[in-house]
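In the current project phase, we have settled on a layout for protein records. A sample record is reproduced below.
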Amino acid sequence: MNKRSLYIAMSAMAAAGMLASCSSDYLDVKPQTDISEATLSDPAAAKALVSGIYEAMNVQYAKLEVNQNVGEANVNMNCGEAGGMDFNSGLWTAMPGLRTWSYMNDPGSYMTILPWMYYYNLINLSNYLIKSIEATSDDHNGLEGDMLLYKAEAYTMRAHAYTRLLGYYGNRWEDSDDGQAKCIVIRTEPGVDPTPLRSMNEVLDLIYNDLEEACLLYDASGSDRDAKYEANKSVANGIWARAALIKHDWQTAADKAKAARQGYSIMEANDLFAGFFTDNSEIIWSMNPTETTTYYWSWGAHYACNGAYVNNWQIGAGAINIDLYNEAKSVSANDLRLQFFWTPDKLADVPRAFNPAGLTEKDFWNPAMVDQNNILNMAATNVYDRTGKDPQGLGMINALGWWLNNYRENVYTGSAADIANEDNLYNSYILDYSGKDTKKAVRLGRDANGNNIYAMVLATPFGVQNKFWSYAPYGNMAMPWMRASEMALTEAEAQYMLGNTGAALAALNEVQSKRIPGYTSSASGSALLNEIKVSRRIELWGEGFAFLDLKRWNEPRVRRIWVANDPTSGNCVPDEQAGMTAAEVAKVQSPKYCNGWRFRIPSREYQYNDLIDMDELKEIPNE
């Protein structure tokens, strides 16, 4: 079998584990492949399968019903972010369960199936390679170089998948009976044969052992990865730190986080505002930014601020919860990360010519300015009438148009050529307007030839982000899976929990000093832990950590809805809590909800896998 035919066979095997539609029938299909252990003993074939594992992180996993479903990025967003409290998205209007958490209790729902299907697919692919390369760190069995590297990568990817599965389907450590609670199944052989539920300790032991073996094999190989979308020893240490956080194994978390970020430096402001679609000094692991497989299905097409669907569907590219924004601002109003978001305080920066009515922060709760029936988008018809004849033309869109254009021209530091598209469909939230319709567009100025430049602002909800950009035309990007900032903040938290205040402050300030010019934290006690958490939330916003962090912190998920003419209210979409009483809202937001924020195991798994005893899962009352 040549490399190309092997790759096709590998792709067929991956597809067999995919969700063919929004129904829950994926486990009715058994993987089919002609990949043999003998074939995988060939370095070219082994390399092809390793490449296939990484491709499975980006490949399309569903039909048009949910066409942003492209593996790792989609799980991170729709499970890791939607399950938290810091991210709002218009994409969820079609799936309100993402916001109300009703999906988490449904074993037949798309969202409980998604991470199970996706991560066990990665595990199955990794198992093929682990079994086929007959080498260990103690006995190389005559193999060397890249073959040892490939096996190390497979161990790393299997550990990554099990770590994420624990985060979604396992108990909080406080609720786990010191790790004895049953949680998920363990598969270390290729295939999907029936197997019983295993304890959190058994899963964590496998993760730790896989990563220890991976690190030894990386060292023995003398080789390294070709690109940052592949795994290496730094990635393995980072995954180890993540697993240790779940277990509250603080010393391991601190040590492995520190090891993971060796050789990577916290990015400076120039990279912070470059759009997160290209590589920089602190990215340890990232999405493959090529456009060969996903095209308009890519994560950036839906969630980057210049993605196609941002404009075409009027959904926005995600907005920050104003409560997190204000928490970060309370630490320092000079935090550079605050510049990413369209928030009430930004009106103070808008020149009078673009804010002729003198709008103030309270107007973000004015129903004439914000459309509560359209995911809190700025009202697109509210363009200021310069003639003064329209008393309703108060100019919020003018102000927003100026801010967005100013961000793109003066804050964004990436390549303008990378994000430009001649058909104007992928130009941030602003579409250049050749029709010069002053009733619908905002005049931004003049071009080099003296011609007026008009733009129409689209799909910009309260708190909308400019953090993530993507390559035109398809929205591809090097979305970060792991960064040095995450590892530094992991180290800070772990050192705090160990009682090492000095070490915790040192790690925290590595990040904070780059994000808040001239700032050095001197917090102590609970104030220090809170600052570590707030910095982590604002730093990693939109990258898939919100649910997993909040769950292991054992804190409630508080999402305050927008209330017309009430500037003390939040900016979450009102229909999130439609028809719910205050008691019902409190119950859903409680850390005890859904058995302690534990995703239900998909019904197709336990219907097919007759060795699973669902009565073994610990129930946590939410009274």
User: Anything to note?
Assistant: Confidence is low (pLDDT under 50) at residues 1-34.
